């Protein structure tokens, strides 16, 4: 398996290189040079596999055995999921006339746990072999930060720096990050949006010499290993939903940075007959890009109940452009340079047409999100988090218009227990869980980046201090 940046100027044959790279040095995101295709005979064989076994099969297509042997991969996957709270790791629940794929049975109660559990294990596996340290940089607008912390907080080889936007994560999400006291965990609260904090992070990774000398790594969905792990969700839910291999299943995806959409698109290219619907809130750059080809940043990011979707630079659009341009790296490089310079991009017509054969989109308002949470609870006694409610709202709207005629799965991105403010705003009474009650009384600790300060300098100083401390030890 060979990997190449979406912009085509950097390539490697090592999964290890991709795992530790974050952004490629040319500013792009790593992708396999060629997507492996799975035939119907293989799909039939995979239909009866457990989530763990399916994870191993799919990951083995992208990880050379010379780097991680079959036995090592088996051990990594089993250990990664040994503390998940559901016997099948994931669960599929029928609600109304569709299924909800519950991806919130991990330690931090969000779908990020599923991918990051394995990514953290991969990182530890290689670092232990090298006897080297790394610094992980993470920007989060919701659940990624706490899941990333949980995946590496006890690693002797890793320090992790997490940046989150002040006032734009809810109380539980913030506490899950700021109450961790492990010495290798460093949490920073920033005055701005998640798009703002992505800038100094990307600047660090784009400075290739700096990133390499400080052993920087990312486990946002910038990282290909995150996308690879999320591909499994689509295969597993497809097999649980379809009556026979070959029929189409539609996945409705509450969408932020397009990581799940990129994973579903790769699954489609691998031969899985799936359609994808990107469900977004009022921050609708993804909806505009998919429906009209207008990939233009808005003047500001609106704050909504579905905070993880409150972004205007969904960086995995770059991977979608590559997949639906027939892997035209030079074109993607040109398009992304134009977007970075102007914050405006018109997606070429031929890419739009190919993309729409697989992906459609819809936008949901704040009020509609709360209304859907209330209706789902009142009619089906099923409680939704606000992100999942965006997806369910789209399903109900499109079913009323007869736009979705296939078996349908909505991806549930987080437990509603993580969003007590939204649940209360929807008019639903929900008792505090023991975990939440403990968080609300826990002491917090984090540093701050304020508007007007040099965030690049602050972040690089923090990285340098961590590197020096590691060297002195």
Automatic annotation (TrEMBL):
Alphabetical keyword list: Lyase, Pyridoxal phosphate
Modification N6-(pyridoxal phosphate)lysine occurs at: 112
GO BP, sorted A to Z: 2-oxobutyrate biosynthetic process; serine family amino acid catabolic process
Tagged with keyword Lyase: yes
Known cofactor(s): pyridoxal 5'-phosphate
Highest taxon listed in the record's lineage: Eukaryota
KW Lyase (keyword) present: yes
Gene3D superfamilies: 3.40.50.1100, Threonine synthase, N-terminal domain (3.90.1380.10)
Residue ranges constituting the Threonine synthase N-terminal domain according to the UniProt record: 2-81
InterPro entries attached to this UniProt entry: Thr_synth_N, Thr_synth_N_sf, Thr_synthase-like, Threonine_Synthase, TrpB-like_PALP_sf
Pfam families: THR4_C, Thr_synth_N
GO molecular-function term, one example from the UniProt record: pyridoxal phosphate binding
Similarity field: Belongs to the threonine synthase family.
NCBIfam families: thrC
PANTHER family membership: THREONINE SYNTHASE FAMILY MEMBER, THREONINE SYNTHASE-LIKE 2
This protein's name: Threonine synthase-like 2
Originating species: Acropora cervicornis (Staghorn coral)
Taxonomic placement: Eukaryota, Metazoa, Cnidaria, Anthozoa, Hexacorallia
């Amino acid at each position: 398996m060979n990997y190449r940046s979406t912009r085509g100027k950097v390539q490697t044959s090592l999964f290890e290189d991709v795992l530790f790279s974050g952004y490629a040095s040319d500013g792009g995101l790593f992708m396999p040079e060629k997507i492996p295709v799975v035939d119907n005979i293989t799909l039939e064989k995979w239909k009866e596999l457990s989530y763990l076994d399916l994870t191993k099969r799919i990951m083995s297509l992208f990880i050379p055995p010379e780097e991680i042997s079959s036995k090592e991969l088996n051990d990594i996957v089993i250990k990664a999921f040994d503390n998940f709270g559901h016997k099948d790791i994931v669960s599929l629940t029928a609600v109304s006339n569709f299924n909800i794929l519950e991806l919130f049975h991990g330690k931090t109660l969000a779908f990020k746990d599923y991918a990051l559990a394995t990514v953290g294990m991969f990182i530890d596996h290689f670092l232990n072999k090298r006897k080297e340290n790394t610094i992980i940089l993470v920007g989060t607008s919701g659940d990624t930060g706490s899941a990333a912390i949980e995946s590496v907080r006890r690693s002797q080889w890793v320090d992790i720096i997490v940046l989150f936007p002040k006032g734009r994560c809810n109380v539980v999400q913030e506490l899950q990050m700021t109450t961790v006291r492990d010495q290798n965990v460093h949490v920073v609260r920033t005055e701005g949006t998640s798009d703002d904090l992505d800038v100094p992070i990307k600047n660090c990774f784009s400075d290739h010499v700096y990133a390499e000398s400080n052993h920087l790594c990312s486990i946002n969905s910038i990282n290909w290993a995150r996308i690879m792990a999320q591909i499994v969700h689509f295969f597993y839910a497809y097999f649980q939903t379809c009556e026979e291999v070959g029929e189409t299943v539609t996945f409705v995806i509450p969408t932020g940075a397009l990581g799940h959409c990129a994973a579903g698109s790769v699954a489609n290219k691998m031969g899985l007959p799936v359609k994808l619907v990107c469900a977004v809130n009022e921050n609708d750059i993804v909806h505009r890009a998919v429906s009209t080809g207008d990939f233009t940043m808005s003047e500001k990011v609106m704050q909504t109940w579905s905070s993880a979707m409150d972004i205007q630079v969904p960086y995995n659009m770059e991977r979608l452009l590559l997949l639906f341009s027939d892997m035209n790296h030079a074109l993607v490089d040109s398009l992304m340079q134009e977007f970075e310079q102007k914050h405006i991009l018109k997606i070429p017509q031929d890419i739009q047409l190919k993309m729409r054969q697989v992906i459609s989109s819809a936008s949901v308002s704040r009020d509609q999100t709360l209304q859907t949470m209330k209706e789902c609870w009142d009619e089906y006694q099923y409680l939704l988090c606000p992100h999942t409610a965006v997806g369910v709202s789209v399903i109900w709207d499109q079913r009323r218009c007869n736009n979705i005629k296939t078996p349908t799965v909505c991806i549930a991105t987080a437990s509603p227990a993580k969003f007590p403010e939204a649940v209360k705003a929807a008019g639903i009474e929900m008792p505090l869980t023991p975990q939440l009650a403990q968080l609300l009384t826990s002491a917090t600790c984090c540093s701050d980046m304020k508007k007007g300060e040099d965030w690049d300098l602050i972040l690089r100083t923090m990285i340098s201090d961590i590197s020096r401390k590691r060297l002195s030890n």
